[in-house]
Amino acid sequence: MPLDLSSLRATFQGTLVTPYDPSYEGARVLFNNRIRTRPAVIAKCADAGDVVAAVRFARDAGLPVAVRGGGHHASGFSLVEGGLVIDTGNLKDIAFDPGNATVVAGAGCGWRELDQVTYVDHTTPDGHGLAGPGGECPTVRNAGYSLGGGYGFLSRTYGLGCDHILGAQLVTADGEVLNVTGDEHPDLLWALRGAGGAGFGVVTHLAYRLDPVPRTVLGGVMAWSLDDAEEALRAYRDLYVGRDEDRLSIYLAIATDPYPDGEPLLMAYGMYVGPVEDGEQELAPLRAVGTPVFDAFGPTSYTDLQHALGAEIVYGLQLKWRGGYFRDGGFSDEAFAIIVDAARRAPSGYSMLRFDLLGGGAIGAVAPDATAFVHRSRLFNISIIAQWVRDDEAEANLRWTDDLQDALAPHLNGEVYQNYADADRADWAQAYYGATYARLQTIKQRYDPTDFFHHPQSIRLPG
Ligand SMILES: Cc1cc2nc3c(=O)[nH]c(=O)nc-3n(C[C@H](O)[C@H](O)[C@H](O)COP(=O)(O)OP(=O)(O)OC[C@H]3O[C@@H](n4cnc5c(N)ncnc54)[C@H](O)[C@@H]3O)c2cc1C
To answer: What is stated as this protein's family in its record (predicted)?
Structure first.
């Protein structure tokens, strides 16, 4: 029986999609197509007024809600079975203030869209572009990314996405629009900086500070066969353990090349935020490892690098994402042997292992209790990302992720990056938020006392 949406339709400026519309399946699908959750209605909001109308309609109708931006939540918490999805993906207005190096972004802007305005189309008096604190995935939206932390190639130099949030506009469970700043609702601003997607309200806009990035940087990708992978992992660890320098941001991934039919390779990719010659020196220890299959590092622009790396991200595969931060000393030879062995046995060519993030630098310079983001000194992280197409491939791929997670358990410290959410973790509150969780519960009580914005891993009310 179709839901009676007439009262919502009367004011709604965006698009309402229900299971009775031919566009429903396309509108429903998440990055992770293993998620088959079927909402009763997807409210694709055109502006903050639509968000208010959707919240009020859902409250009055007694419908559960989920909030969605780009749909990349690894465990699918941006959909809700039989409920109303408040989709902010079309909130794409951008107000750039070049003089103050800030931008106010609609929650649905992707980082490439923002960088086009602030970095590509604008040059500062000293010849730089201004970049937001984005990651490489072109379809992730800025709000979902920054509210949960937000690591990109600029993070070690300038801080996380959440550290760049100056303020927010947020619609509460009552349908009230709050202006969240350091003066108004400072406790909520604290929570949004790291736990913002976990049940406080719907963010419609975020204000960010921007960072100067040279027009030309050293960036790219280099790769080794798995025969050289353990040596390359060792060199990478030695490059970063105890490192003070904070402009070199290199991530690792083991993925097939060409993707998804080729051989698995260990790839190092990223950039140096500074003069190209200095970057060459900093990268030299990695370049000295084994016999690279290719080395495509060279002078490039920040945005060209991001475009090139994002091109291989495929929306709509089935996915299981596990992993976590390594304990001190856990990113070890023993772990490397386990990792490379697992990479050789991956059941799907779409699967990958990612070693990204790299705390410390400007990330570690922020006190652990200054925001709701706690994993600041953690250098190494593994993402075990099984991806496949057909339902009958699920069992082998799920077993592969679980086996690798179990084998690495002695090397991990129990913390998990909340933006790489794992629905199977019963200890999620501790793993994502550690000692800040009790404070988050108090703020949840203040701003959402009926737990309207609830999902399987949203902040619980105290008691
Ligand atoms: C391929 C891929 C690459 C990634 N790369 C990186 C990376 O380089 N660095 C990094 O840090 N992370 C990365 N991530 C993780 C990503 O940042 C998070 O999954 C992020 O939450 C996705 O945001 P979204 O809007 O696309 O997803 P959604 O699934 O739409 O939302 C994710 C969560 O945020 C909440 N949310 C979204 N919009 C709002 C809003 N307007 N108001 C309140 N809550 C909201 C949702 O309710 C949900 O809980 C990657 C993920 C994928 C799948």
So the answer is: Belongs to the oxygen-dependent FAD-linked oxidoreductase family.
